[in-house]
Amino acid sequence: MLRREAIEEKIAERIAKLINDLTLDLDQMGLYFARMNNITYRRLIEIAESAKHEKEGSKNDYHD
Question: How many structural domains compose the chain?
Answer without folding.
Answer: 1
